[in-house]
Design goal:
Blueprint (H helix, E strand, L loop, with lengths): L12 E3 L2 E3 L6 E5 L6 E6 L3 H20 L2 H17 L1 H12 L6 H19 L7 E4 L2 E9 L2 E5 L5 H14 L3 E5 L6 H12 L7 E3 L4 H8 L6 E5 L2 H13 L3 E5 L5 E4 L5 H13 L11 E5 L3 H13 L19 H16 L3 E4 L3 E4 L2 E7 L2 E4 L6 H4 L6 E7 L2 H9 L3 E2 L1 E5 L3 H10 L4 E4 L14 E2 L2 E2 L6 H5 L1 E9 L8
Parallel strand pairs: 7-8, 7-10, 8-9, 10-11, 12-13, 12-20, 13-18, 17-18, 20-21
Antiparallel strand pairs: 1-2, 3-4, 5-6, 6-24, 11-23, 14-17, 15-16, 19-22
Helix pairs in contact: 2-4, 2-6, 3-4, 4-5, 5-6, 9-10
The protein binds NADPH dihydro-nicotinamide-adenine-dinucleotide phosphate (NDP).
């Protein structure tokens, strides 16, 4: 029997530090991906509501910027602590709205969001320019906030994405208007409440809910200085085109089809663990996932045997059950898209070694569950090896030598991430150097400590999140020249 049916009251928009109804009274439903049931209705923001959020942000931002980094940092640190205090509640909310297993959400979602707020809380007061003498005087630089920034999120890490975007933006003295993906609207509102409780001034963090139209209203808004999007490549291009009209800065965290390369000297148990993390965590709905697993031909059978044995044990089921490894995919539509890719893989000659079917979990028959799938006998041109599936589908490929595997690994329009498993330290770094990807893991996969810059190359995106580098994306740099002598004008 289901024990977590969790219907809630309508949710509104969060503008100017309080809940506000949508101006035209529209609502949309948010569904529980494990059951297909409606969790609640959510107010849909119109362009008029986006205007109201911009006005609230514009009223509040100058004072927030003037307040100083240490004071801003104190508020962000309080918010981080509140997230930790409410970890259980927030983790359940993420699992309920997004179908993510409850074994994942306390750390990967709530913990990651809290770490990010803490990191930027600490950085906020170290926000300095530089001084340099030059002939005739000196100059100094002033990093300044941009003003009002928009964050637009994907549905796979709703709270984490809201924190990864808002923490550096707010630490640097900006206001943010955040739009969650319409499939996962809940946790950003809870974050807004906790920011409020931590003492964040009204108007500094606003949440507008809705679909692409609401996102476009933000991207096209003349008073918004910057847009940070996490989403698909096509959405990234649309956002960049819209942002071009106002010459807004963009940070784009987009899709991927990342390689994991396992050499013959690798610790195979670790490599298998990493391949599973990089394909089945969050049901495979992770942008950096290592969906192309290249294993040296001499160890491929041994690798496959361990991989199949461990994957066969994964338990698909209720995301709120702590024994569950694999929850439902985000929506019925997305499940169908993943199942279509699995069919296509078979039709094009791939051999499905394991899984790949829809699962009807007892008590959750309408949930969007798909068994983790492992494909073999593939070639690099098959659709499932080239396109981002965003589901629990692992492609096993074999290789003979380093040059060959690097060429194949890099033969993609994406460039988000990659991984290498080897005990040869020189080879490890050589491969890391030569992978055309923004993030490379040596002997691990998908770890994203907040200190480490995160972002892709090529069509996987522009800019970095996390680390001090993120500040650069939420600031503009003013240079001030100071003369120390007379003005020698020739007239
Ligand atoms: P989408 O691109 O469909 O949506 C992302 C967000 O953009 C949503 O909030 C969406 O609104 C909004 N949006 C859609 N169209 C527009 C538009 N024209 N203008 C402004 N906003 C718009 O991505 P998904 O939510 O489906 O997420 C999955 C994708 O995200 C995958 O490709 C994945 O690789 C990528 N991703 C990248 C990450 C990274 O850091 N590199 C991390 C996580 C995911 P709505 O959905 O409400 O209609």
């Amino acid at each position: 029997m289901r024990h977590h049916t969790d219907q809630r009251d309508d949710l509104l928009l969060w503008i100017g530090g309080r809940y506000t109804s949508a101006s035209d009274g529209n609502f949309f439903d948010t569904l529980n991906p494990a059951t297909g049931e409606v969790i609640c209705r959510v107010a849909e923001a119109s362009a008029e509501d986006v205007d109201l959020a911009v006005e609230a942000a514009a009223r509040a931002q100058p004072e927030w910027a003037a307040m100083g980094g240490a004071a801003r940092g104190r508020i962000l640190a309080r918010a981080a602590q509140l997230l930790r205090d409410h970890c259980d509640e927030l983790a359940r909310l993420e699992s309920l709205d997004g179908g993510k297993p409850l074994v994942e959400t306390p750390e990967a979602d709530v913990g990651s969001a809290a770490n990010c707020l803490e990191f930027f809380a600490g950085q906020a007061s170290s926000f300095a320019g530089k001084y340099q003498p030059v002939p005739g005087g000196f100059f100094y630089t002033r990093p300044e906030p941009l003003g009002i920034c928009a964050g637009i999120g994907a549905w796979n890490y709703p709270l984490q994405i809201a924190a990864w975007k808002s923490a550096p933006a707010l630490a640097a003295g900006n206001a943010m208007i955040f739009k969650p993906a319409e499939l996962t609207p809940l946790s950003a509102l809870r974050l807004a409440e906790l920011f409020h409780e931590a003492g964040l001034p009204d108007g500094i963090f606003n949440v507008v809910q809705g679909f692409a139209e609401t996102g476009r209203a933000l991207t096209r808004h003349p008073r918004i200085a910057k847009v940070s999007l996490t989403g698909e490549v096509g959405t990234g291009k649309a956002v960049m085109r819209d942002a071009a009209e106002g010459l807004k800065a963009v940070t784009l965290e987009l899709g991927g089809k990342s390689p994991l390369i396992v050499f013959e000297d690798a610790d195979l148990d670790n490599a298998v663990g990493a391949a599973m993390l990089g394909n089945f965590y969050t049901q495979g709905q992770i942008c950096t996932n290592s969906t192309r697993v290249f294993v040296h031909e001499s160890v491929k059978d041994a690798f496959a045997e361990k991989l199949l044995a461990r994957t066969a044990k994964l338990k698909v089921g209720d995301p709120l059950d702590l024994d569950t490894d694999v929850g439902p995919l985000i929506s019925a539509e997305h499940m169908q898209s993943v199942l279509n890719y699995i069919d296509k893989g078979r039709q094009e000659g791939g051999k499905l070694l394991l899984g790949g079917g829809r699962v009807r979990v007892p008590g959750f028959e309408e949930g969007n569950f798909v068994e983790p799938a492992i494909f073999d006998s593939l070639d690099d041109n098959m659709t499932i090896v080239r396109e981002e599936i965003f589901g629990p589908v692992l492609s096993l490929l074999s290789f003979r030598n380093e040059d060959e595997v690097l060429a194949r690994a890099n033969d993609t329009a994406f460039g988000l991430a990659g991984g290498v498993f080897t005990r040869d330290i020189q080879r490890a770094h050589r491969v890391a150097d030569n992978l055309d990807a923004g993030i490379v893991w040596i002997n691990h996969y998908n770890l994203t400590p907040v200190e480490m810059p995160f972002g892709g190359f090529k069509q996987s995106g522009i800019g970095k999140e996390n680390s001090r580098r993120a500040f650069e994306h939420y600031t503009r740099l003013k240079t001030v020249y100071v003369a120390q002598g007379d003005v020698e004008a020739p007239y």
